[in-house]
Amino acid sequence: MEKSKLEKRKITVGLIACWFFGVIFLITGLGTLAQGSYFSGIIIIVGSLLLIPYFEDLISKKFNFEFSTGVRWLISIVILVFFFIGMSTSSVNDIYYESTANNAVSNGEVTTKVIAKPKPITYLSVTYQDLEFIFGINSKYTDLQKEEKFNNEYHGKYVKWTGEVMEVDTSWGALKLTIKHKNRDFDFFETGDVTVNMNEDQRNTLLEIHKGDVVTYSGRLNDYSGSHFYLNDGWIIT
What we know:
The protein is of the alpha+beta class. It folds into two domains: 81 residues, no CATH class; 109 residues, CATH 2.40.50.140. The chain is built from seven helices and seven strands, in the order ααααββααβββαββ. Strands 3-4-5-7-6 form a five-stranded mixed β-barrel. Helix 1 runs antiparallel to helix 2, helix 1 runs parallel beside helix 4 and helix 2 packs antiparallel against helix 4. It is elongated. The N terminus is likely disordered.
């Protein structure tokens, strides 16, 4: 019986480079995918698998072909192109920041404060009172008509309103801001008129807000119950 001979593979700089860049690109692809750039992320992951020698050997044995050095370079270039495409797409969807100088501080120095702002959006030209007139208890619309009108004209649209803070709390792990718009001499239950699911980035801002403060806020209309409206993607503007 002849002894089986183990197949030896020569370790070269090219082999090490393929492993190194293949793994780096694979991690990059997963990160791009996690940021929401799905197409670019998938392309980068597939390309990285083609660079890693282990997966390259599997593909070569399965389909009976082998990648040349030029093809590996081409794959690397394609990966880089889709990486930058994914980064540019992500940056467009991200929240942008504005630096403003503030003359505050006891030592007289000028400090720079970074203020988080939401990406530019278009607001509906409606007030809370406008919607309360349509969906409230004194509305002339039937419940069916209200539902149809809300879904077709208001759901998912952004509004910017000003009202009085009634409560800030966390429910089911989300930051919630409750706002009062209607003037009431007596409100035993203190239910408010608007409940806003706030962005987590707003936590520090919300820590500085007290009951009774008047704030201008924005949010995306999600649902309603009579004259009470529920908003998502909330931000404090002033």
